[in-house]
Structures are given as structure tokens and as C-alpha cells.
Design goal:
314 residues, mainly alpha, four-stranded mixed β-sheet
């Protein structure tokens, strides 16, 4: 419950920042600019909301599959959706070679779940079910829509900063000051979007467990996905940079995460049982200053903290 509250508090804070910035602009440039940026925010949000799923489909090579093509995948998703109390999402497979999964869509009723090639052969049925439970939880929590709304705020700040700092208009002495303030807020709101992205991962992990999946299956799946990502060609990882927020883990941090995982398990076989997860629960986290700093700029939680969180759900 607290994770969900934090997401809505974050949403309120982000739009409070935009409101304050627009009020500052209105006081400096008049009501006309106030209306312009308010309308701009609404238009950008609406466009992103409408075309977002299609852009994801095109950029990630998504193909929707029928129940006849992937009966087991449909059975698992249908069962999880029924437990979550939501409409069964559309199911797709992406031609991305890095094993992973993600959810997207405009709303609960428009939910879509996609797995990439290789994940079904990489994971056991229980691990796959835990991963899909995580993605179902993203749809149930409506956090895809919330993140879409959040991501518009830094864009608005950037447009305001650019307009006031480089437009050439110098009717008022504080024009550049407003531009600089908007640029600072652009940086801050970007960090807040990343923070929101990390919160939603914790919440989806908890949601997967609430749907009846054992937490150690999700941990095992994370281990396997991290190691698989670490073996992927560097060029392939770079191609995924723009989409990493969608995935269960961040493929670009795979090598760092392997080193983190060795902190809690020296024999990384890729499979975790309940007793191992209970042992992890008792271990103390040893995060360096670098680890903490990297997490601030990451779309996903620190892997050690994430597994520690999952161990607390046993």
C-alpha cells in the first residue's frame, strides 16, 4: 500500500512543480504564456498516451500471438489476470534477442504483455509465471499510465528552458532566470521519473508474490536474466538503451549486477530455493557510495536491495 501511495505522491509532486513553474512564467510573461504551456502539457500528454503503444510495437518488433500459437503462455497469463481481477492482456513476442519481458498499454483494459525470444526456454514454468505475474501487476497497478504522465513533466521543463534561454526574446529582465530555473527542474524531474520507475518495480515484485508466486522463483528468474544479458553482444545492449525501463531488469547493468549478486551468493548457479532466500534475508547489505549513486540514475532498483526486498516477502 505504501509503495502505491509513494507513486501518487510523486505524481502530485511532479505536477506541483509544473504548476509552480507555469505560475512563475505567468507572473513574468502574462496569462497568454500560462495558457500556452498548460495547453502544451495537455497536448503532449494526450499524444504520448495515444501513440505510445504503437511506437513500442514498431520499435521493439512486436508480434501478437494467438492461443493456438502459444497455448501455455496464454494459459499462464489468463490465470494470473483472473487472480488479479483484470481483463486478460493481449500477448505478444518481441524479436529482441535478449531474454526479458515487459508490459505496456494505455490502461488496464488495454493491457499488453510481451516476452522476448528465448525467455521461455531460459526460465522454468514457475519462474516464467513469477515474471509474468510481475508484468500483470504493472497493468493492475496502472503504473504504465502513471509513468507516461510523469515522463511528460521533464519534457515540458525542457521546452520551457529552451524557449526562455534561447528564444532571443528579452522583454523582461528575469527571462533567463526563468529558463535556468526550468533547466534545473528538468534535471530534478528526470531524477524523480527514475525514482518512480524504481518504486514501480518494487511494487510489481510484491504484486507477483500476491498473485501466488513464490518470491524465490522471481529471484531465480532475475539471476538468469542478468547472466543472459551479460553474455549478450555490447551492440545489442546499446540498442536497448531507450527501452530498458520496460524490462524486468536493466540489461545495461548486467555486469555490475553480477558483481552485486556475488555479495550474497558465491555459487551463482542461477537457481534459488526458499532456504537460500531466507538466508539472504538475514544478510546485511554492503552498498558502496558508487552503488548508491548509480541507483539514483537507474531505472531499476539496486539488485541487492531488490532481492533483499523479495526475501522479506517470504
Amino acid at each position: 500500500m505504501w509503495l502505491q501511495v509513494r507513486m501518487y505522491l510523486l505524481l502530485g509532486l511532479m505536477f506541483g512543480i509544473i504548476y509552480a513553474l507555469i505560475v512563475m512564467i505567468a507572473g513574468s510573461a502574462g496569462i497568454g504564456n500560462f495558457m500556452f504551456y498548460g495547453i502544451l502539457a495537455v497536448i503532449m500528454l494526450f499524444i504520448q498516451y495515444m501513440i505510445g503503444p504503437k511506437m513500442i510495437e514498431l520499435s521493439m518488433g512486436i508480434k501478437y500471438v494467438s492461443e493456438r500459437e502459444e497455448p501455455e503462455l496464454h494459459r499462464i497469463v489468463a490465470d494470473l489476470a483472473n487472480k488479479a481481477g483484470i481483463k486478460k492482456p493481449r500477448i505478444a513476442i518481441s524479436n529482441i534477442q535478449i531474454p526479458n519481458a515487459f508490459a505496456f498499454g494505455r490502461s488496464r483494459s488495454d493491457g499488453r504483455i510481451c516476452v522476448t525470444h528465448g525467455i521461455m526456454n531460459l526460465l522454468s514454468r514457475d519462474e516464467l509465471k513469477a515474471v509474468l505475474g510481475h508484468e500483470i501487476s504493472h497493468i493492475k497497478n496502472r503504473d504504465v499510465t502513471i509513468m507516461t504522465m510523469l515522463s511528460v513533466v521533464p519534457m515540458i521543463c525542457w521546452f520551457i528552458a529552451w524557449s526562455f534561454m534561447f528564444s532571443g526574446e528579452r522583454r523582461r529582465g528575469n527571462t533567463i532566470a526563468i529558463g535556468l530555473a526550468a533547466f534545473v527542474l528538468y534535471f530534478i524531474t528526470n531524477l524523480l521519473v527514475l525514482y518512480g520507475s524504481r518504486i514501480r518495480e518494487y511494487y510489481a515484485d510484491k504484486g507477483s508474490v500476491a498473485l501466488g508466486n513464490k518470491p524465490h522463483y522471481l529471484v531465480s528468474a532475475l539471476y538468469k536474466l542478468v547472466y543472459s544479458s551479460a553474455r549478450a553482444p555490447e551492440g545489442m545492449i546499446k540498442q536497448m538503451q531507450g527501452y530498458k525501463a520496460f524490462f524486468l531488469n536493466d540489461p545495461s547493468r548486467a555486469m555490475n549486477e553480477i558483481n552485486e549478486l556475488r555479495e550474497i551468493d558465491s555459487d551463482m548457479s542461477g537457481t534459488v530455493d526458499m532456504s537460500e532466500l531466507m538466508a539472504i534475508r538475514k544478510k546485511k547489505l554492503k552498498l558502496s557510495g558508487t552503488d548508491r549513486l548509480m541507483e539514483i540514475f537507474s531505472t531499476h532498483p539496486n539488485m541487492l536491495k531488490r532481492i533483499k526486498f523479495l526475501s522479506s516477502l517470504t
